Sequence to fold (472 residues):
Amino acid sequence: MNEMTQVNDKITAFREATGVPGYLIGVYHGGRRTVLAQGTANLATGAPMRDDTGFLFGSITKVMTTMLVLQQVDRGLLDLDAPVVRYLPEFRLTTPGADRILIRHLVTHTSGIDADLYFPVAEGPGALETYVDGLGRQCGALFEPGTLISYSNGGMMIAGRLLEAVTGLPYHELLEREMFQGVGMHGSATSARQAILRSTAIGHFADPATGRVRPTGMFMLPDTWAPAGGTPIGTIDDLLALGRTHLGGSVAPSGTRVLSTEATALMRTVSHDMGTPNVPPVGMGWLLTPYGGTTVLSMSGASPGGVAVLAVAPELDLVVAAYGNDPRALALHDELLPWLVRQLSANPEPPVPPLAPAQADLARYAGTYRSDQLRVDVRVVDGGLEEHLTYEPADAVQEQVFTGFVGGPFEVPPLRYEPVGDGLFAPAGLPLDTLDGYARQLLVSYHGDGDDGPTHRCAGGRMTRRVTTTTL
Fold:
């Protein structure tokens, strides 16, 4: 692909400008596979980034967890429209309504489970039981199941424990047997003990004051987060094999059928769409992200100091998988994926509605919004909205894991937003024509109709619930 020479140049320019240590990208198109590797996999050792270097998949694991759920649906062990408690009677939340959460809600990010920052620590085969037990004592709900979309780590962890309950197998064993072996992900593993035996990248963080890049102090999240993406590790070729399985209607490159055609169709069919540009429609497991006139099945995956992405564009016969071992590499993902789609598309220009400045009654949005351990205070300032985000850890263990994941104390300066539509706001000063694809998640939207204004705020695909109203 001639495009890959330009991709290599873009990676070089980005790394020189930012200091991101290393980057990997693989592209499969029209029967051809190309992998590019640049830089360093681990600044502590100086190990180079190689074509076969492993890395944490992060939330790309959610695609595989969904596939495991649909396999059990294919086999008659699960009913998507059954309540979770039919198979997992111990599932509880601190607020009423857990019995109304259906299995389909878990894999479409519509469960409303408020557990995005809940990090219990447990390892081994009983880790997910520990997660479910603690969830019932510490976490509630953000909204009624099936009414809104909020990117849900908690839903995927419950799905993982559900899989254990109906198969009798630990989640990691099921993942290795049904996904890694079934798809042909031969470089994949589920533990650091396995990863240490091969070339493996670690994450890095840049000091916001000096720009100096340092290795992460925490390689991976605990086993309690495995189904949402805490532990699986693999290579670019592994992710390309997973993407090609979806290009092939869930027939892996080896010829093994992994899912039924009906289950494959469910994954790429819109199950919920809030009709707002900062939240892409969801299928099952996949986000159905518009890039210009092309819908891309996509999922990104953060890990401590790293970020991966997997994107499949069936109409272009295209799979893109990438990883950067510094969170700032997400900006490079956001540059390369739309560029590749435009290069290969016969109709690259959007029908994505353009954004434009708008008028709004700002006072109705002001107030305090909350989710698990996160507080957002919204104020009216100088003709726009100003947000103050505060992390309020539930205990020392939660704080230790979360700050290890983000590389230090969670400190976000006040953020300013300007109205660009009904209940829709863009970061002040950001050119609106740059907000396409994943970048549209920088927008903030408001939802629901309460007595004093909206009931929910959505940023980065995640909901917070309004708890107070203020006009300050």
